[in-house]
Amino acid sequence: MRNISVFLVILLLGASHVLFAQNGVVKGRVTDKDTHQPLRGASILVDSLSRGVVTNDRGEFILPNIPNGKHLLSISYTGYTSQMYSITGEKMFPFVNIELKTSVSELTEVVITGTGTPHYLKSAPVQTEVFSQKALDSFGAGSVESLLAGLSSSFTFSSNAMGTFMRLNGLGNEYILVLLNGRRLYGDVGSQNDLSRIDPATIERVEIVKGASSSLYGSDAIAGVVNIITKRSSSPFVASNVTRIGSYGEWLQSNTVGVSKGKLQLTTTFNRKQQDGWQNSRFEIDRKGTPSNPSDDVLVPTFTLTKNPTTSISIKQGISHQATARLSVNADADLSYRKVSPPIRAKGYQFLYHNQSYAVGAKYLLKGNGHVTVDATYDRFRYLYQYDMKYNVNQINSKGEAQFITYYPGDRSLNNDQQKMTVNGRLVYRPNTVHSVVAGVEGEMEWMEAPFRLKEGTVNGYMAAVYVQDEVAFSSKLVATVGGRMLHHSEFGQKFTPKISLMYRMGDFNLRGTYASGFKTPTLKELNYRYEREDMGAYRLYLGNPKLKPQTSNYYSAAVEYNAKVVVASVTAYSNCLNDMIEYRAIATSREDAERGVEETKQYGNIANARILGVDALLNLKMGKHWLLGGGYSYTDGVNLTESCRLKGSALHSVNVKCLWQTAWSKYKLNVGLFGDALTRQYGDALSENYYDRQAADGYMLWRVNTVHGFTLSRRLKAEAACGVENILDYKEDKPYGSSYGTTTPGRTYYLSLTLRFAN
After folding, report:
1. What confidence tens digit (pLDDT) does each residue in 482-491 have?
2. pTM above the 0.90 mark?
3. How many Cα atoms sit within 13 Å of 213 on the Cβ side?
4. CATH number of 110-247+305-759
5. In terms of DSSP bridges, do strands 627-640 and 110-111 run parallel, antiparallel, or are they unpaired?
6. Are 679 and 742 in contact (CB under 8 A)?
7. Regarding the domain delimited by 2-100, which CATH topology (the fold level of the hierarchy) does it fall under?
């Protein structure tokens, strides 16, 4: 392991030792071929340098420090057919005028997540699903969860008082790696990523790679990778405001200010979101007898809400600087705060979530076709209670001793404090037209403090890895992506995870095949947890398990894609075979714990064998100039083979559909969209002693309509108004609290939003 790390360090340093060349400047403008209107945010990529810029509000761009000689520019913009443009020059390159034609699909979108290198979506070596800016605007989502569930049939969501729980092709959030601009999203709420930290108004696009991606991204990427990419601008000055109001006190304020001067770019974002709670049922299940005897359950009036009032605030600051012709540096800070406020009569305390993230990085362009990037990230996530009333708690500390604590109004108690430091180094190099190599090193150290939720008050662990990947173009039709990662973990030793993807082009068809090995180490919480609480009328104990084994998987998929002018379709069949999946299991309560009043004990354990068989199908039809019809279907058959039962939370069938109508005049654009989302019942936990866990969540169908009105008020000022109705048919589940819900919607809701953008 040490020899490999030393070798890669030498490789990176050696590749960085290159000479500077003479450089010039490329300037240009990108417009709509039919209307001749400038296209803001179009992407211009210099293929030979693996870097690029986006156009400003006048459709203009500047590419500084371009070496003399011949280069190929890739110009792309969502909803338009991309172009390749060749330039040749010495110091002064010719002015570039690009006119793009509207496209019937999003296949010309440039994606990076699947391989770590830029590719057009239609020819990406690793199958990737994209939600572009056009799709996001048409949907008008108020949350990331709503966006993913509404636009992809592969995602399902369920909620409780703490947060929203995500699943991708039958596997939960703990198996899904969520990236924000290519960096891991850290911090959890009940073992789930806190997606509320991400403001939908700031998202430019979402890239999804399904199936195991551990070879490139490491642990957690067993179900897939979701990369959420935020907006950027190269205008000298830009300011935007998004205001959204809706039913149940929904109020969103999102503000962004960006400044670009010379080689320096600054972007500041502030957003605040709040929403009142609601109650779908006035009753909850109260357990009067033993947890294993559901006949003793009764319904009692409750003050508990289906969804609690929530307030979220975040501040983000980004800085980038082009230090030299080849070296650029950047720094980011992200502070977010979320408060969930159950009624005092239901809880007596509020949930607080504090997130901090700081990152620094650098990118160095090699003289040849490639670059080196280095970055370091520090993340901290804290989960606390804030008490609204006098509260007596009998807690067990890390030594197993009972402590009687009294909290008073305004007091706070720490549940857990997680911290992580990550360092990455990556080399991207194209030695010729056949190979494109990605190689890197990665190190990670994590600490966790939880005075009353761990067997020990503080625990830690570390991981180090090296990886390499090669995209091999055997011909213009056949491309293979082969990669592997060697990982060393402080608790579990070494593990190698390979991946190979093949793509064969036949006219408008792409044939794909993938094999990938996945690997996920148990979290510090899963290894060391010790927490007890009163839950649904019973006093329960939750335990970690230091004997847990790492989870592994073998993922196989085969896909057929058809990309034509009016039809875009794909069908993907896959098998995900998992070993040693980690789940809570009901175990016998010890005599000592039973004497203290513990009625049920759960402990993390390994499920020896599980498998998921599935099919994903996508279809988009361009009906004339103004209409677009589309949708997706997912079949997910998840089975725990060890106990011969369904995997918890999986649903056999999921469908979404969309119907879009759009038109545009010189200074006004109109977009109307109708969206449907349907899901069959989600299976409960067949192994649990809990009656309410065994119940399956009901299936549902939800419809929503969204209209978007775009106005060009002046050359510098643009406005966009949106209004819509969610859950048009007014469906809601009114089962007692404690039941399994398929959706926690309160019924039909309404919203309005206004976006103002000024750019100079």
Report:
1. 999 999 999 8
2. no
3. 24
4. 2.40.170.20
5. unpaired
6. yes
7. Immunoglobulin-like (2.60.40)
